[in-house]
Write a structure and sequence with these properties.
Elements (H helix, E strand, L loop, with lengths): L2 E4 L6 H5 L8 E5 L2 E5 L5 H7 L7 E5 L5 H4 L2 H8 L9 E5 H5 L13 E5 L4 E4 L2 E8 L7 E6 L5 E5 L7 H5 L5 E5 L14 H8 L6 E5 L3 H6 L1 H12 L3 E3 L4 E4 L1
Parallel strand pairs: 3-4, 4-5, 5-6, 10-11, 11-12, 12-13
Antiparallel strand pairs: 1-2, 1-14, 2-3, 7-8, 8-9, 9-10
C-alpha cells in the first residue's frame, strides 16, 4: 500500500517566515521506500517527528529552487549519505536550480545520481515512476509532476504556477490531484493559483479526489477547510484541505 504524507502545508513567504504552517516537504512511501518532494525549511525536523528513517529516502525531487521548496536540500543530502560515507540517493532537479548552486558542490559526489528535470519527460528510480508536465508559469523554471503508483493510481501535483489553459490537459489523467493553492483571490502579477483558478481547472478535470495545500495568508484567513467544503458542494467532487502531517493511503 502506498502512502502520501504532507509534512508541511505552508505556501507563501509570510506563512513560511512566521511558521504559521509547517514548510516541510511531502513524502511518498511505496513498498517501504521513500521519495521526498520539495524539502522546504524544517523538513529534517518533521521527518524526525514523524519517525521517518532518513536512510530510507532514496529519491529526492525538487520542483524548483525557491526556498520554500528547497531550503533543507543540503542537510537532507548530508543526512541520507551519512556525511558522504555512504553513497546514496538520486536527486531530480531543474537545470536552473543546479546552475544556481542549490546543491553545494561538495555534496554532489555524495549522491548516487543527479538527474535534470526537463518538460514532459518520464523518470524512474525504482520503485518510483513519474512524469513532468510542460513548463509552468512561475518566476523560476518549474514543472508539475505526475506520480505513477503501483496501485494503478496517478497522483498529480500542480506546483507553483499562474493559471493557463493547458493545465487541464496536463493533469487530465490524475486520479488524485494535489493543487498548490496559495491565494484565496487572484492578485495581478502573482504567479500562484487562487480559488477561482482551482474552479477553472476542476470544471474540466474530474479526479477522484482533490487535495488543496501550500497555503498563503489569504487562504489561511479564509479557512482552507471551509473553502474546500464549499468547493466540494459546488463542484460535486471530493475536495479536502490539507493540514500539517496529513497522510493518505492509496
Amino acid at each position: 500500500m502506498s502512502k502520501i504524507i504532507f509534512l508541511g502545508t505552508a505556501g507563501a513567504r509570510y506563512v513560511v517566515a512566521k511558521q504559521l504552517r509547517a514548510s516541510a516537504g511531502t513524502i511518498i512511501n511505496v513498498n517501504n521506500s521513500y521519495l521526498l518532494l520539495d524539502p522546504g525549511p524544517g523538513t529534517l525536523v518533521y521527518l524526525a517527528k514523524k519517525k521517518i528513517p532518513i536512510e530510507k529516502i532514496e529519491t529526492i525531487v525538487v520542483s524548483h529552487q525557491h526556498l520554500d521548496h528547497s531550503a533543507d536540500l543540503n542537510i537532507i543530502v548530508d543526512a541520507i549519505t551519512e556525511g558522504g560515507f555512504k553513497k546514496r540517493g538520486t536527486l531530480f532537479l531543474t537545470e536552473s536550480a543546479l546552475k544556481e548552486g542549490l546543491l553545494l558542490s561538495y555534496l554532489q559526489p555524495y549522491l548516487k545520481k543527479i538527474e535534470i528535470l526537463k518538460p514532459n519527460t518520464f523518470y524512474e528510480n525504482s520503485p518510483f515512476k513519474f512524469k513532468t508536465t510542460c513548463l509552468l508559469k512561475h518566476t523560476a523554471e518549474n514543472y508539475g509532476l505526475l506520480f505513477y503508483l503501483p496501485e494503478g493510481k496517478i497522483v498529480g501535483f500542480i506546483t507553483d504556477t499562474a493559471y493557463f489553459e493547458k493545465l487541464e490537459e496536463e493533469f487530465a489523467s490524475a486520479n488524485i490531484l494535489v493543487i498548490y493553492t496559495v491565494r484565496y483571490t487572484p492578485k495581478e502579477g502573482v504567479l500562484h493559483l487562487s480559488v477561482s483558478d482551482v474552479k477553472k481547472i476542476l470544471s474540466n478535470v474530474r479526479p477522484e479526489e482533490v487535495i488543496l495545500t501550500h497555503f498563503g495568508m489569504t487562504m489561511l484567513k479564509a479557512n482552507p477547510y471551509k473553502v474546500a467544503q464549499e468547493l466540494s458542494n459546488e463542484l460535486g467532487l471530493k475536495i479536502r484541505a490539507c493540514y500539517d502531517g496529513m497522510s493518505i493511503k492509496i
